[in-house]
Amino acid sequence: MTTIKQVLCGAAVAGLVAGTGSVVGSQTGLSALAADWMLTAEHVLLIGVDGVNLSKILEYAYNDDSGFKLAMDQGITGAATEVNHTTISGPSWSTILTGVWDNKHGVINNLFRPEPYDKWPSVFNLIEYHKPEIDTTIISNWHYLNELAGAGGYAADNNVFVPTEGSPADSDELVTALTIAQIMATQNNPDDISSFLFSYQSQADTAGHSFGGGSEEYSQAVINLGANIKEILAAIAAVKAITGDDWSIMLTTDHGHQQSLGFGHGFQSPNETTQFVIFDQAGNDATDGSQSLNYSIADITPTILSLFGIPLRSDFDGVSLVDDPAVLDGIVTPVDLKQALTDAIAMFGYPNIGNDIELAIRTVIASIPYFLDKGILEIDKFLQSIVDQDIFLLSELAQGAQWVVNTVGGAVVDVTNSLALGVGYLTGAGVIAPTDAPLPLPGSADFSLPDFHDTDLPLLLDVDALLG
């Protein structure tokens, strides 16, 4: 069984990642003959940055110091939109990682439920079922995504959760360091092990909620993310020079942010619904620096599967960016990519008034159990702090209060979330059932055991070893 490993602090991995910069800068590479065995491995990296407005990337991080621009220069960029769909992280990342919109997967908020991923398997499930020899990894500082990667019967091989201790920027730096360490680990790949790596960072979304999407703090977070991405891309270039293996890279966000301090996102303004997809396919440099007019976040999972030669579900909403004719026909080469993307963003509008109202109602109702749950967690943490002080009588009373809060509060959250799911269904969430058969669960009568193996490309981040 795959477990979620926790990286407790930056110091715990300092010894592991120290010197990564020198490794990236000093590897001399191998001869072509010595690297022959490495040439068949396929590596795919998905970088997720939460709550990032494309317009802010173009304004603050479209320069040579930013990984955003480097990724755009090396690949194809599409300004995308999720208008008519909920601009909340749980539903949007579920679309990114399943290839279907919320009218199918039915996720409405950020309270994790495993059931949607039994019906609509994630990219991790589909890779692990069809090609278990591929090494799959998630490195994330939002626990929801780690739970998603462990759901659906075929979990990710390596599931690393990075707690957001310290500042969000510090947490993202640790995610970056761990991502680079995992990339560099592929230089020792004697069994031609292909890999899929999902690396997720959250500081822009946190800044948007704390200060607003038009704040200096938000723009600085976008700049920070650009610097982190540049480090990751440098590591890929370095390991490619060593092994000869090329990498396919995808970069995306789940939603944007309101400019002023307030709800943040969840509604249908273009600042919230505008997204982006950047795609750099391994070995395909002919369209570097181009723009796509047809990219969608629902295309990401189908694209990843097609890169690994895994068959696509017939009920995907997305398509493969590798070979779908409609997508390929929508690739253009603008004179000024920044201006072309700015013009594309300006074309995005609101849904019709009926859909706008329905989705607003869904967001408000779906947010109630989520914020109740967050409030209960905060009360629980406060009471636990009293329990930990071992104060005579008071700590015992706090422990009893914890039980009451968690029992009663948990029941309230469950009831309100059930009501919210009902409202979600009435407003179109989860109303379309799968047409493809579900993946047979391991141990079921329909399951035939593939050639599973112990992970051949170990995540060099065993927390027990690091802390021991």
Automatic annotation (TrEMBL):
Name of the protein described by the UniProt record: Phosphodiesterase
Q: Which GO terms describe its molecular function?
A: hydrolase activity
Origin species: Mycolicibacter sinensis (strain JDM601) (Mycobacterium sinense)
The chain's coiled-coil residues are: none
Q: Which Gene3D superfamilies match?
A: Alkaline Phosphatase, subunit A
